[in-house]
Amino acid sequence: MSYWATRGLRGSAFEEVLNMTNEQYRKEGLALIQKIPTPIKPIEIDQEKRTIKLAYFEQKSTVDYIGVMGGIPICFDAKECGKKSLPFSNIHPHQVEFMQDFDLQGGLAFLLVHFTEYQEYYLLPVETLAEYYLHKEEKGRSSIPYSAFNKELMIPDTGGAYLNYLAVALKYGKMKKALAK
Amino acid sequence: MSYWATRGLRGSAFEEVLNMTNEQYRKEGLALIQKIPTPIKPIEIDQEKRTIKLAYFEQKSTVDYIGVMGGIPICFDAKECGKKSLPFSNIHPHQVEFMQDFDLQGGLAFLLVHFTEYQEYYLLPVETLAEYYLHKEEKGRSSIPYSAFNKELMIPDTGGAYLNYLAVALKYGKMKKALAK
């Protein structure tokens, strides 16, 4: 039921901001980021009215956004979180796998997390996500603590209609490169 | 109507082959390519049965596939074609724009075209697509002729369940780099 409950008919306000930001990035030629539609399987079509009469949500979605900025492939998921830690309940194993595979292929994979209580935004690298998510049993955790979020990867909230995450994504890319050396 | 008519409930056999190929690429760690679901807007949900009672196909889809192979962002669309030229009727302006923008961001964008009559497969670079598509009125053409397809970008049909397009995509990437120098 939790899967179902998290699916609304509309995206969240956070997603709206990201969609507008991505449109702006595209206009300015900074990046091209595609929102991946929720996979829906149409079963019955009303040919006369040209509508779908019956359809199912498909379980296996991967990430919310995928694209490219200046030659760098990126993919990310947007998560909103009212607590002092990011709960795993809203993160699916195949999403983490997808991000890890994307990372292995030389792309940048991360979460953009909105802590509504602090009104703060962070980029959470797939490495940190995987570290917590894949060892949740050993660690006895059901969430990623706020303290695991790197302040250097905080996205400044300028309060407008956009969330300018691109500079922080580039910074993350540079940090990865420096570590690889 | 043409948009509607081209939307089936199931993907084409060509798409099935590409989906299986992409799965195989992922298993082998060669590439991670995401099939973009057809954008469908759910309007009414049956909470009891957990199904969608009413939904619409959204017009603005972009490309069929997007992903990354060894650090290179790629996106492509699959087209099947029974004639001796690829008709424009099945190609939408925003698809061409998306591919051009993707190319500008340093990614590889192309069509994978199946000429069913010849049982031949080609990679058609976005440059060639745009050249014909954007000048269709001047050229008085409603399709891209078979002769415009570069034999060097033909994908060998090994007759199996897969279409191994990756080597040709890499070749295309190298051709682009050589031209840019």
Description:
Two copies of one chain form a homodimer. Chain A is globular, with a radius of gyration of 17 Å. Chain A has helices at residues 2-6, 13-27, 93-104, 126-134, 136-139, 166-180; strands at 32-35, 40-46, 51-57, 65-69, 72-81, 85-87, 108-115, 120-125, 143-145, 154-155. In chain A, strands 1-4-5-7-8-10 form a six-stranded mixed sheet. In chain A, strands 2-3 form a two-stranded antiparallel ribbon. Chain A is an alpha+beta fold and 181 residues long. Chain A binds chain B through residues 4, 9, 26, 29, 31-32, 34, 36-40, 42-43, 45, 50-58, 62-63, 66-73, 98, 101-102, 104-107, and chain B through 4, 9, 26, 29, 31-32, 34, 36-40, 42-43, 45, 50-58, 62, 66-73, 98, 101-102, 104-107.
Helix/strand layout:
Two copies of one chain form a homodimer.
Chain A: H1 2-6, H2 13-27, E1 32-35, E2 40-46, E3 51-57, E4 65-69, E5 72-81, E6 85-87, H3 93-104, E7 108-115, E8 120-125, H4 126-134, H5 136-139, E9 143-145, E10 154-155, H6 166-180
Parallel strand pairs in A: 5-7
Antiparallel strand pairs in A: 1-4, 2-3, 4-5, 6-9, 7-8, 8-10
Helix pairs in contact in A: 3-4
